[in-house]
Design goal:
By secondary structure, the protein is of the alpha+beta class. It contains 2 helices and 9 strands; from the N terminus they run ααβββββββββ. α1 packs antiparallel against α2. 30% of the residues are buried.
Length: 195
């Protein structure tokens, strides 16, 4: 049996026992409780996430971004992006939708901002949940990011990022309104749960 089917099969077995062996008056409550617990356990699932960046049309930037929970409800975001222009600076943001199908990645929507905050760089307390700041490329066009933030969760109740898009922009995020004047989208990835 494949691993991903195991929780489903276990839940089905428990439901058969509870739903078909209890007196009728307890039937509904027991079944609802069992289903709720099964979905709760599945929702908790993996606690790390990853996004693989692919270049948009006419660009070459590729990379990988990891999201890992750390203490006090914070999330550590680490990224490696390659094939950037040497010594260039590029904004990196989480966007509303996990959709990179448009050639220019506009299908990912705007910045992820469920709390309605103004745009800002990561050193500001009030900012879009998707504001991750900038990447600085080295002479070989490779950039890394290591940032810990407190305004997102992987798949929790506060600003969950799973299923959202991550965009690397052509220019630096200068912190201005409404979205940092960062220019076009040169790379896009979708955040998914990691093993």
């Amino acid at each position: 049996m494949t691993d991903f089917l195991k929780p489903i099969n276990e839940t089905h077995a428990i439901m058969r026992i509870l739903c078909y062996s209890l007196p009728t008056r307890l039937l509904s409550a027991a079944c609802i409780f069992t289903v709720a617990m099964a979905f709760s356990a599945r929702a908790a699932g993996p606690t790390t996430a990853v996004a693989v960046l692919h270049p948009t049309k006419g660009n070459q930037a590729t990379g990988i971004i990891h999201f890992q929970p750390v203490s006090d409800g914070k999330v550590r975001v680490t990224a490696t992006v390659e094939n950037l222009a040497p010594n260039s600076v590029h904004a990196i943001h989480i966007h509303e939708f996990g959709d990179c199908t448009a050639p220019d990645a506009t299908s990912a929507g705007g910045h992820y901002n469920p709390e309605g905050h103004p745009h800002a760089l990561p050193d500001k307390k009030e900012r879009h949940a998707g504001d991750l700041g900038n990447l600085q490329a080295d002479a070989q066009g490779k950039a890394t990011l290591d940032l810990t933030v407190d305004n997102i969760t992987i798949n929790g109740s506060k600003n969950p990022v799973v299923g959202r898009g991550v965009i690397v922009h052509e220019k630096k995020d200068d912190g201005s309104q409404p979205v940092g004047n960062a220019g076009g989208r040169i790379s896009c990835g979708v955040i998914g749960l990691a093993k």
